[in-house]
Amino acid sequence: MPRDPDYFRDKTILITGAGSGIGRATALVFAREGSxxxxxxxxxxxxxxxxxxxxxxxxxASFVECDVTVRAEVDAAVEQAVADFGRVDFELNAAGxxxxxxxxxxxxxxxxxxxxxxxxxxxxxxxxxxxxxxxxKGGGVIVNIASVAARIGGAGNxxxxxxxxxxxxxxxxxxxxxxxxxxxxxxxISPGLVDTPFHDNTPPEVLQGYAEQMPIGRMAQPEExxxxxxxxxxxxxxxxxxxxxxxxxxxx
Length: 252
Ligand SMILES: NC(=O)c1ccc[n+]([C@@H]2O[C@H](COP(=O)([O-])OP(=O)(O)OC[C@H]3O[C@@H](n4cnc5c(N)ncnc54)[C@H](O)[C@@H]3O)[C@@H](O)[C@H]2O)c1
Fold this sequence. Notes:
Blueprint: E1 12-16, H1 21-32, E2 36-41, H2 44-56, E3 61-65, H3 71-85, E4 90-93, H4 109-137, E5 140-145, H5 149-152, H6 159-179, E6 184-191, H7 204-213, H8 222-233, E7 243-247
Parallel strand pairs: 1-2, 1-4, 2-3, 4-5, 5-6, 6-7
Helix pairs in contact: 1-2, 1-8, 3-4, 4-6
The chain binds nicotinamide-adenine-dinucleotide.
Residues 16-17, 19-23, 41-43, 46, 66-69, 94-97, 118, 122, 145, 147, 191, 193-194, 196-198 line the site of nicotinamide-adenine-dinucleotide (NAD).
C-alpha cells in the first residue's frame, strides 16, 4: 500500500496489453487510485473499452493501438502518453502470450521467433522507449510481467514461452541495477495461473486440473496480480528493485 494515500492521484501509467486480463485489471486498479491510464494494445477496440471503463471510474484515460513488437509503435505510444498527460510515472509491460502449446521437439523456429518477439523484444521495446523520459523526469517504475513458468521450464508444452519469461526476468534484473541510482526502479511480477483469456485455447477440464494443483486450490483473478503491480509502483516499495515478485498461490 502507498504510504501517502494520495500517492497515485494524477500520476500516469502506460500499460501494454491493456485490452484484456492483467493489463485491463491493472488499468482499473490504478483508476480506483485516481491515476491517469494510457491503454496500449494491438487490439484498439479492446484498448478503447478499457479506457472507457477507467473513465467510468472517474479517472482520466486515453488509448493507443500499439504492437509491442514494432519499436516505432511503442515510441509513438510513449509520445502519445506524454502528450496526453505531461509525464509517465509508471509502465506496465503486460502484452504477452504463449501463442501455442507444443512439446519441445515440435517447437518450430517460427513459433520460437514469434514468442521471443512478443514476450522479450516487446518488453525490451517498452522499457527502452520509456527510460529516457523517466530519466529526464527524475524517476519512474517499470513493471514487467514474467511468469512462474520461467522457474519451472514449460516441460512438455511451452519451453519456448517459459524460457522467454526467463529472459524477461533477467532483463528486469539488468535494467533495475543499471538505473537504480537514477531514480528508476524495475521489477517483474511472476504470476502462477491467472484466470484470463490467455488460457482460451486450454480445455476447461485441463485448466481445472492445473488449478487444483495450486496449493491455494484455484486460479488467481487478474485483480490479484494488478494489486501487486500497484504495490510495486508505490512509495511503500521504494527499496524494491531488480527483482521479481511471485504471485502464485503457493506454487513453487
Ligand atoms: N494468465 C496467466 O495465467 C499468466 C501467467 C503468467 C504470466 N502471464 C503473463 O501475463 C501477461 C498478460 O497476460 P493475460 O493473462 O492478461 O493475457 P490476455 O490474453 O488476457 O491479455 C494479453 C493482452 O495483450 C495484448 N497483446 C497481444 N499481443 C500484443 C502485441 N503484439 N502488442 C500489444 N498488445 C498485445 C492482447 O491483445 C491482450 O489484450 C502476459 O505477458 C502473460 O504471458 C499470464
